[in-house]
């Protein structure tokens, strides 16, 4: 019980929007989710579910994992990886279910005066009661209590860390907002909120003062903070990640300039803010192109590692040193390097490699790669380069320097003319995991040396990234996801390193799994002046055979825009929306097996139309 019984009141909450959790695979089934109906003082009228792994230490850590608006504790249990990680690392997970709404539905209260005051009541007090229950009943460690959550749950995470820094050791907020972003219930509904309206901008000092005023006079240690946000998030604008960074770095007395940056996985840009002793107090992830759909696969593991629950408090062991690079295909402006791969030794996983020019160079880093090779571009003609490689792991540790490779780019000559763009790009032989591309060759005054193959996710949006090269006019792409849409382009390169314009685009959709007939039934959960939430959108197997994947399509009315989704992989083309099953909900038993997903959309004010034409296959 210790201090929790004296702080059962309070502040905190995580407010707003939809349960935009992408389902990441079913949790392990060694234990089961249990509902606790009498856990103590419950002014928020919340429900409590708890997952206690069968294998755990005598005094396990406690993680409070909170859903987004419109969701539930059991839903977040099914749609996130925290329970499976609990089986692996032996910590307890509490899954609260919020019942506050402020007109939006099942959101954690971060807007009321009661929630912002220690001892004030509302959801924070209910959550503290749940923690106290887990400490008493399962001998949970009161010195290792952590908070995490998505959207509204991410907001509540930052809220709880601000109001109850004496309870929590660290937190991981997915798509949240800074503490005290909401002025009150009137500032809460989407579209009209000053907090999430896209123009919130306070100084670091103002944000930091808000936290300090939540617990005046507190001088103890502050919980470390991990922040996640997608650059394409418009529901809870990406700009609020910067505001959260400013708040928490100010609380810790840190510079606004990160002490280190890296890319632990493709599209994940991480910034770290450490104190003078090197301890990372604030960590922020920008997920390139992602909308309101976090956490995605693997992100929960990074949160649990940040908490120090994966076997050691911090991975400080660097990867092994990579082999000396070998240069090939050197032109006036490009060179390809390959090297012997490193291995990770500290448990956080090999994340990739940094490629550097010799010491003393004005711009020493030439590039990054997630594999043991890289094609350097933009080099200077007729120039000698000395290059080495360092491996990095998921914790940001860097290996020693590889040996140096020395090469000299060819003279620039007079060839500055790029090849013509490839034409006639087509795809054939598409399976569940691959497709074959062919195109008509480009022409060049000195000769085409190869082609770069570019791929983007979905029917629209996304970024084209290089996924391979070919010295012929064909390429087979493998390792794709079933029932998923991709777009491809091709560009040519010549011996001087000139690159052609890209070809036209070809779009493919990989085959889905086996299945039969199904139906899709929408429910309008909530509406407001310029938006609405469809939840649940129930998918039912109406056939006599098991379905292993499903695809639902529907049409948005003119002027409506999808702003978020959860429990499905969603793409749009014009007003047509395609939603496909994800790992944990694709298999439906014959004869009325069901699952569900949901989405949120914006619309012109006064427009009361909703989507139509739902089909399921």
TrEMBL record:
Domain Fibronectin type-III: 321-412, 421-513
EC annotation from Swiss-Prot or TrEMBL: 3.2.1.91
Polar residues composition bias: residue spans: 595-605
Tagged with keyword Signal: yes
PROSITE patterns referenced in this protein's UniProt entry, alphabetically: CBM2, FN3
Record-linked SMART domains: CBD_II (SM00637), FN3 (SM00060)
EC supergroup of this enzyme: hydrolase
One GO molecular-function entry: cellulose 1,4-beta-cellobiosidase activity
InterPro entries reported in the protein's UniProt record: AB_hydrolase_fold, CBD2, CBM2/CBM3_carb-bd_dom_sf, CBM2_carb-bd_dom_sf, Esterase_phb, FN3_dom, FN3_sf, Ig-like_fold
Record Gene3D superfamilies: 2.60.40.290, alpha/beta hydrolase (3.40.50.1820), Immunoglobulins (2.60.40.10)
Location of region: Disordered: 409-437, 595-617
Swiss-Prot/TrEMBL keywords: Carbohydrate metabolism, Glycosidase, Hydrolase, Polysaccharide degradation, Signal
Signal sequence, start to end: 1-30
PANTHER family recorded: FERULOYL ESTERASE, UNNAMED PRODUCT-RELATED
Protein name, UniProt field: Exoglucanase B
Species name: Nonomuraea coxensis DSM 45129
């Amino acid at each position: 019980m210790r201090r929790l019984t004296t702080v059962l009141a309070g502040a905190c909450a995580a407010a707003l929007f939809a349960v935009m959790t992408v389902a990441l695979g079913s949790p392990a089934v060694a234990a089961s989710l249990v509902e606790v109906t009498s856990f103590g003082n419950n002014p928020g009228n919340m429900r409590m579910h708890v997952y206690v792994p069968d294998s755990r230490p005598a005094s396990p850590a406690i993680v409070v994992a909170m859903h987004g608006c419109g969701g539930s504790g059991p839903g977040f249990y099914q749609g996130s990886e925290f329970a499976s990680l609990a089986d692996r690392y032996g910590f307890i997970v509490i899954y609260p279910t919020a019942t506050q709404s402020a007109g939006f539905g099942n959101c954690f209260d971060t807007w009321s005066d009661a929630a912002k005051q220690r001892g004030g009541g509302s959801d924070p007090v209910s959550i503290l009661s749940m923690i106290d229950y887990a400490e008493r009943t399962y001998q949970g460690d009161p010195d290792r209590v952590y908070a995490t959550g998505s959207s509204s749950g991410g907001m509540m995470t930052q809220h709880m860390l601000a109001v109850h820094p004496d309870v929590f050791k660290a937190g991981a907020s997915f798509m949240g907002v800074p503490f005290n972003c909401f002025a009150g219930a009137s500032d809460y509904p989407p579209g009209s909120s000053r907090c999430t309206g896209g123009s919130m901008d306070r100084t670091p000092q103002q944000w930091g003062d808000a936290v300090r005023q939540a617990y005046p006079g507190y001088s103890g240690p502050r919980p470390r903070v991990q922040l996640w946000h997608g650059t394409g998030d418009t529901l809870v604008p990406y700009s609020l990640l910067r505001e959260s960074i400013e708040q928490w770095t100010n609380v810790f007395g840190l510079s606004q300039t990160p002490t280190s940056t890296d890319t632990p996985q493709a599209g994940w840009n991480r910034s770290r803010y450490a104190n003078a002793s090197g301890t990372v107090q604030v960590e922020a992830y920008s997920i390139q192109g992602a909308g309101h759909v976090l956490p995605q696969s693997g992100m929960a593991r990074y949160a649990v590692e940040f908490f120090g629950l994966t076997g050691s408090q911090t991975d400080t062991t660097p990867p092994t040193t990579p082999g000396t690079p070998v240069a090939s295909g050197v032109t006036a402006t490009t060179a390809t390097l390959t090297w012997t791969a490193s291995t990770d030794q500290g448990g956080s996983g090999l994340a990739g490699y940094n490629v550097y020019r010799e010491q003393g160079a004005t711009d020493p880093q030439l590039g990054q790669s997630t594999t043991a090779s890289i094609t350097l571009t933009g080099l200077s003609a007729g120039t000698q380069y000395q290059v080495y490689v360092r491996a990095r792991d998921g914790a940001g540790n860097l290996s020693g320097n590889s040996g140096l490779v020395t090469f000299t780019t060819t003279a620039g000559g007079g060839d500055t003319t790029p090849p013509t763009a490839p034409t006639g790009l087509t795809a054939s032989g598409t399976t569940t995991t691959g497709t074959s591309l062919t195109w008509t060759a480009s022409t060049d005054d000195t000769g085409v040396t190869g082609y770069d193959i570019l791929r983007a996710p979905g029917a629209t949006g996304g970024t084209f990234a290089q996924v391979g090269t070919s010295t012929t006019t064909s390429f087979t792409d493998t390792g794709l996801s079933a029932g998923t849409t991709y777009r491809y382009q091709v560009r040519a390169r010549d011996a001087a390193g000139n690159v052609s314009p890209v070809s036209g685009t070809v779009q493919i959709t990989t085959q889905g799994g086996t299945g039969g007939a199904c139906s899709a039934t929408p429910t309008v959960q909530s509406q407001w002046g310029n938006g609405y939430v469809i939840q649940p959108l129930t998918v039912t197997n109406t056939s006599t055979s098991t379905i292993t994947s499903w695809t639902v399509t529907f049409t948005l009315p003119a002027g409506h825009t999808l702003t978020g989704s959860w429990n499905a992989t969603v793409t749009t083309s014009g007003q047509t929306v395609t939603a496909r099953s994800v790992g944990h909900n694709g298999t439906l038993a014959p004869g009325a097996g069901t699952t569900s997903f949901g989405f949120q959309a914006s619309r012109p004010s006064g427009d009361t139309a909703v989507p139509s034409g739902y089909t399921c296959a």
